[in-house]
Design the sequence.
């Protein structure tokens, strides 16, 4: 559970709402279903045009990571790889076959199978790097859905604002309608700027950092698997992999 | 058919128009042929200065991809390449000659011909990589036509807005003309910001993602053809190419 | 003749002027010698501080390319190089000496001379790549003069606008001067945004695309010359160079 | 002690406050607890969503570096490495064992241990480069916390400003409340723009420069350790390392 | 003497001041010591926080280059290097010892000493490249001081403007003070935008171009020194170095 993400949203919302209250405003004066519909709908539409279905669906799935980041136990995986290298030393690469079958991590399993097949280190690296970068590209695009959303909400907010002002201009003769138009205009701006800066852009960066960590985690596995293929001794492999710890 | 692109445009338009209606405005108040002419004409002109004829025409052609993306069947092509490698094993590289003649994909055909000619793996890679990057550069420029359009519409919208305001200033004495000037001013802004954020910029990114996929697809073909040239066994080639699946 | 560039400028200007006319404004209301002097002079000054004399002069020279792009016949040069490789096969590299003397393209001539001198392929590549990138850097800077101009005109336009507004503020008591001040203010903005988006920025990109094509053209020549130095057969050289066609 | 950082903050604040005073304003007119709460709270919240706990905590720790930069004595470390190479020449790599135990710099100690273990130069480089880049990535993210803060404060300031303006709009009938609304609106803008440009963005860049220096310092150590592993003579090592001095 | 830099500043200033005069404004109306103090002081403070002392001092030193660029005679240095290669051919590398002692250019002297010491070409390249990039990084940071200044002046100008507007708001009852507040507000904007676009940003780019030229000049020296170390013949070295001419 990423407690910081949850608290961050609360802190930001509280700052806005308490600030509004202390100035003597009602929370009501910041609420407008119409303004929200314009900003949310316009942004959603732009996102749908921009991303293919596969990435659009993936972006919904990875959004959870902002609050419940995927687990990656660097220490455990180093221990596991050192263990593999010990087995490979004693029983040969074929000794990894049963371990490969019970391995649950997809990426590590692929590495083990390549070892058992007796592939060349360079082949292993090339296959695993392509796998890593293909998946990384996809995840990064999913994170960029939120980056794009953070780019569109302020501009759609401006469209909402200008529409409100046009409404005001067309009713200059009837001052009673003046207030509502300006309200929607300004509230659309707040929704647009607020959603971008307090939700979408921070989410996008956190997702990118998580994806960077995942890739580095996989790099570590690649390094370990190749070292086993090259027959390096377990102690050296451990030293090498520990450089990835931070 | 990219259903998401179609729905995205509908969702965005609906959000704006329904939002306008709920505020009590008429759809009419957002219509202005003059504002559209300024924004569309100014942007079109800038685009024509910016891009050479070849890229300008290509950008019209690729715009279809946003709604009907080009088909790329990764699984089918892997199967095809594995099949080639089996033939090459049994009948030698010359056995690929008849297949090369009936191959419909231009890029794959080029690879097959290089194999049949008995070219060195490094030569094959260099020739196919140059071909890939030359075509990729051209397609990317076509996608950038929409990126550029998305950059120009808001600024041309501002020109339209300021022209409207000058008109208002020159007619301060005649308040009846005030409304029309401000209307064009604001509507030009909406057209500029709206076209950029709900059409051109999302289109540009979707096109870039499609082009990235095409290049990766071709990378996969290059990898396969080179593996055949190096005489790798079909099972290894399959494993290697499957890393490109996502 | 790049007909698109000429038409682009006409289309953009027409959109603005006809739009202004349809709104009921006079073309006069968009004319201000003072506003033009501020925007043009301020931008010219900034450009002069920014670029050294050599690049400043070159930018004037290359501006012609936007309308009359330099000719580059890929097919002709491939034919020429294949011809050279045939001569080299029959008469040896020294057979290229007379051809080298009559070659008019500076870059190709340099390549021929290196061949005749019997330089190593790696030496030829390194010498020609340095030559290419030195010239490319210079041309790109010349293109960036227009990019920089496109960056400065809007901000100088804002300076003109604010100066106009200060003028208005200082004459609040005399409303008859109000109009002229605001006019200059707004017209300076239009000149700044318009020159940037409908002239300078599109010019800069078109120039960059032309320079990219030139570099790729030279890359093709380098590839051909090196292939001759390596004694490859003419048919292979032709296949290789055709990958550069688009 | 980085005296320039301290003086910089004083100079910037003085310019603002004295400027305000000379215009005839009271310092009071720039103070608003509510505006500060909105800007600080909104930005803090966004930062908390954006960065994982580890980087968030590290960013607090490295903020001290802006005023008390970490010490890095290039001359001393060159002398130290040359000394190691002398010992390695006389006593063999094992002679570095006692020195390795008493070395206080973590990174240098790691290098010494790899030397004592008799690792290959390429292995040493790969292990130490991974260590360097893992730590560098983390520190750079910590610096980017301030960059992000500098990106969010102006936009949150705009949210505060628009909220103030909504408040004003809702109280048009009661002019006595007009002033307070506009005040918060404008002060939130000043806080947002001021914090970004006079504190967060400059801090972020100074931290990045410090981190760049640290990485270069470590590069120098890697170069030295590898040269010892390759058995180069101490005088050459000294020449080599002195290129890192600036 | 870079006459273009001097004329550029004059042209830009003249455009502004003559423009102001032609509109009927007094130069006085653009003068405000307070506005200048706010913009200059705020920017200076931000710069002081952002850059370490060494870079801050260096930025003052290199600012002269904008008007008096450092001399770099490519032709002379090529001649010099060809001369060295002739000596090395006739007298061996040790023959360069006396020349090395009298060489005034620091970088060339370092190269000569490495030659006299009989260092390997790869060692020479690595030592000289590190030297080049260390110094280049420092100079580029000094140029970035002006880029940063150009980024801060407009935003500090906005702070000055908003402060002026707050002042106006607090004195709505006393219209006589209205003018002065708005004046400072607008003048601060002009100073901010003007200093950035007509001085700091152009300076930064010119400095970067000069530094790029310096680095290329050094690259040429490295190439020459290494060619001598590899015993290439003087005529080839001359051909190679002439590719750096533009």
Sequence:
């Amino acid at each position: 559970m990423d407690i910081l993400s949850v608290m961050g949203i609360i802190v930001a919302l509280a700052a806005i709402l308490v600030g509004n209250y202390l100035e003597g405003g009602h929370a009501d004066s910041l609420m407008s279903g119409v303004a929200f519909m314009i900003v949310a709908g316009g942004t959603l539409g732009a996102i749908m045009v921009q991303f293919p279905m596969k990435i659009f669906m993936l972006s919904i799935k990875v959004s959870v990571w902002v609050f419940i980041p995927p687990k990656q136990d660097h220490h455990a995986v180093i221990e596991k790889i050192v263990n593999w290298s010990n087995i490979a030393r004693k029983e040969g690469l074929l000794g990894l076959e049963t371990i490969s079958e019970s391995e649950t991590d997809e990426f590590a399993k692929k590495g083990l199978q390549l070892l058992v097949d007796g592939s060349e280190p360079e082949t292993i690296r090339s296959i695993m790097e392509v796998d890593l970068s293909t998946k990384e590209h996809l995840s990064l695009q999913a994170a960029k859905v939120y980056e794009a959303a953070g780019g569109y909400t302020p501009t759609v907010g401006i469209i909402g604002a200008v529409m409100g002002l046009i409404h005001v201009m067309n009713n200059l003769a009837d001052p009673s309608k003046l207030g509502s138009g300006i309200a929607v205009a300004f509230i659309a701006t707040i929704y647009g700027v607020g959603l971008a800066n307090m939700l979408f852009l921070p989410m996008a960066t956190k997702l990118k950092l998580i994806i960077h960590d995942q890739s580095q985690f996989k790099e570590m596995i690649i390094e370990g698997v190749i070292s086993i293929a090259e027959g390096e001794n377990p102690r050296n492999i451990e030293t090498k992999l520990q450089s990835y710890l931070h």
